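Dear all,

This email documents one entry for the complex benchmark we are building for the journal club exercise. For each entry we list the sequence lines for every component of the assembly. Then comes the predicted three-dimensional structure of the complex as a token string, followed by one or two observations. Please use this as the template for your own entries, and keep the labels exactly as they appear.
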Amino acid sequence: MSRLLDLMRGDPVADRVVPPSTRSSALTLIISAIMAFLAVFALALSLATLRLADRWSSALGESATIRLTAPEESEEARLSRILAILSETPGIASFRALTVEEEKSLLTPWLGEAVPLETLPIPRLVELLPADQDYDAEGLRLRLEAEVPGAALDDHAAWRRPLVRSAHRLTVLGFGALGLILVAMAAMVTLASTASLAVNRPALRVLRLVGARDAFIARAFVRRFTLRALTGAALGTLIGLAAIWALPDMEAAGGFLTGLGFGGLSWLSALLIPLIAAIVAFWATRAAAFRALKEIP
Amino acid sequence: MIALEDVSYGFDGRLLFEGIGMTLAPGSFHFLTGASGAGKTTLLRLCYLDLLPQRGTITAFSKPAARLGRDGIAQLRRRVGVVHQDCAFLDHLSVRDNIALPLIAASVPPEQHGAAIDDLLHWVGLTERAAARPPELSGGEKQRAALARALILSPDVILADEPTGNLDWEMSLNILTLLVELNRLGKAVLVATHDLNLIRAAKSQVSARVLRLRQGQLDVAGAGL
């Protein structure tokens, strides 16, 4: 890091020895901007899926549902029995049976207003909130099976786990994409700096002939490319952040994709992108410069 | 200061010279002559370690060249001023900045550049052309600027590869006089040239040894040259 800071401070006299900008150094700026723009989205995706996984994991883990499918004449009696069992079960904070109206309002978004829900055999639902995660779900399930025919406990585990797993995989994919973007940026900066070094080979030779050390020559090139990458990445990051900021509000739209974005301090994490781009460019150019100089006596 | 011992070098399997020896001692003045393609430039490049010998040893300032490493070679080049045949300038810099290049490469603070560069520009008669870019200079001006750059770090050894190649006779004598002046200050000077008239003209000014590369061997040329 101290090397990077020294590099930023620069040496105006030494910098002049490098011939003026070439097309390849302008290319570095553009590539860095594009890569940083993509990196902002990859980072936003990773953070969004991370949040989503946490939300799913906690929200779904908080509640469970008992579903009762029974003939109409015995429905109320069995529902009462379920409530009685729940009141005797340790580890359950609260429970309540959903009213028929509440169930209908849950189904309306899926089936539409036109469907006469009262003619359908809709199971009754009892929502329960465990006091802690360790209540004996298996014991409760067995007791319900034994004592209340048609009752089934659903603690959401069956579909919560794959969802959370998928969200975690998306997070890994997002961070993987971020890593690949940085690798691609390193490759592109290496190509651009190698091209620039090749074009400036006669200048490198002159500098060696007048007694310049490899580190001195490399520093002048590395500084140019690192600053270009930093400037380009800063621009790309700003544009990316502006684009994310301009996305529709997550709460208003309610969809998953609109959850793409940064929240709170995570906005600051995007500011690391230009810094990482500069570090990547620093090492990529440095390696390319020393490789090129090795070919010059 | 620089000694070549039993040195051989060749390109593409063809030996350019074989088993040659030469010592550049403090205060010595050597001319190196020979036909085109005899290996004069190659021999000079060996002296400033732009090439390393395929056989034999080169010792520079009491250190074996083979053990110097890249930083060691850079350090050596600060003690050896070279006037290259093609002058080897950076065209985007002014004459003044080109002359300052060895100072910049040696990380000498910029505030210490001024006086030395002004003196040298005056000495080689380029004060008025200090701001010009190398492509704007005439052949003679380039050679004089190259000489100024070679001297900016006050080197112990001066190697000049055809330093009068592009010059008229009067300008050639001027350059020669400059080199002789430096030699009188104790610098070792080696001038590669095929200009025998220049060598003859030098004999009245300095006690110079004339080395001749011929058929892969380095001989001391006779008095009749």
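Observations: The first helix of chain B runs from residue 40 to 47. The domain at 1-79+156-168+182-225 of chain B is CATH 3.40.50.300 (Rossmann fold).
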